[in-house]
Automatic annotation (TrEMBL):
Keywords: Oxidoreductase. It holds the Pfam family adh_short. It comes from Streptomyces flavidovirens. This is Oxidoreductase. NCBIfam families: PRK06197.1 (NF004846). SUPFAM superfamilies: NAD(P)-binding Rossmann-fold domains.
Length: 308
């Protein structure tokens, strides 16, 4: 990878269409904005209609003429995911950026009864990718970029307890969901290759970036002291969202990105230019990735069409 790669190195994206989940704030907003800056049509797939429309307006104010549109998507609700996929009206899908996520929330369940972090971070994106797969397969050189985390190293998945029903520890559950992102990428890349498809499935992580993600859990619980500590860390230690988005943008647009690659910040996985990132050995385990895939199909009811 090129040392010092920045958003100015993004190739021209004119004529391309991108879907970015969670594009209303943080690295998702930056990702959508920079793709639009380079000429892509960008679909902002967000749960909140108000925040999604505000994000679209913000981008067009900064970039007059930018091709951005908000479409509602709640990754915690399979019916919303199906509605989004059914309403997708474009003839191509060049980039699917599975960016949205939740972190270290108190225990909760999605509309379909899944543990919230596993349900949103993995199952929601698994279902979305599968339902949009026909568009990806017919678009030359399309890419699927799934945003994981260096904190995947906190825990491997527990295939016998994917919904944390035997006990819930918020950070372990988060780590498992991020491991699931990497196992999904690994299995998807392998299945695409076996089918002879040129769609690239890759993963990225932002390092420590200042976004709303870190404070959501403590805010939900009314832990004001913890929220102030998180805010202080974001202000003093974290890198800005603009830097945190670079690994995702690299994985989505840079020439020569390899399937099943994992891009993150260069400096100790925390900040700096995009580079090849370390991943735990279990995230490339073929048996685990296949078992998770089968379980994910059963849980979501989404069977990937076009290849086996």
């Amino acid at each position: 990878m090129t040392t010092g790669w920045t958003a100015s190195d993004i190739p021209d994206q004119s004529g391309r269409t991108a879907v970015v989940t969670g594009a209303n704030s943080g690295i998702g907003l930056v990702t959508a904005r920079e793709l639009a800056r380079r000429g892509a049509r960008v679909v902002l797939a967000c749960r909140s209609e108000q925040r999604g429309k505000e994000a679209a307006a913000r981008i067009t104010r900064e970039l007059p003429g930018a091709l951005v549109v908000f479409t509602p998507l709640d990754l915690a609700d399979l019916s919303s995911i199906r509605d989004f996929a059914n309403s997708y009206a474009y003839d191509r899908l060049d980039l699917l950026i599975n960016n949205a996520g939740v972190m270290a929330l108190p225990y909760g369940r999605t509309a379909d009864g899944f543990e919230m972090q596993f349900g949103v971070n993995h199952l929601g994106h698994f279902a979305l990718t599968g339902l949009l797969l026909p568009h990806l397969l017919r678009t030359p050189e399309a890419r699927v970029v799934t945003v994981s985390s260096g904190l995947h190293a906190l825990s491997n998945i527990d295939i016998g307890d994917l919904n944390s029903e035997r006990g819930y520890r918020r950070w372990i559950a988060y780590g498992r969901s991020k491991t699931a992102n990497l196992l999904f990428t690994h299995e998807l890349a392998g299945r695409l290759a076996a089918a002879g498809s040129d769609v690239v499935a890759a993963a990225a992580h932002p390092g420590y970036a200042s976004t709303n993600l870190q404070s959501a859990g403590v805010r939900m619980e009314g832990r004001r002291a913890a929220e102030r500590i998180v805010a202080l860390g974001n202000r003093i230690v974290a890198q800005p969202a603009e830097s945190g988005a670079l690994p995702t943008l690299y994985a989505a647009t840079a020439p020569g990105v390899r399937p099943d690659s994992f891009t993150g910040p260069k400096f100790q996985g925390w900040r700096g230019a995009p580079a090849k990132s370390w991943r735990a050995a279990w995230t490339t385990n073929d048996v685990a990735s296949e078992r998770l895939w089968v379980a994910s199909e059963q849980l979501t009811g989404v069977t990937y069409e076009g290849f086996k």
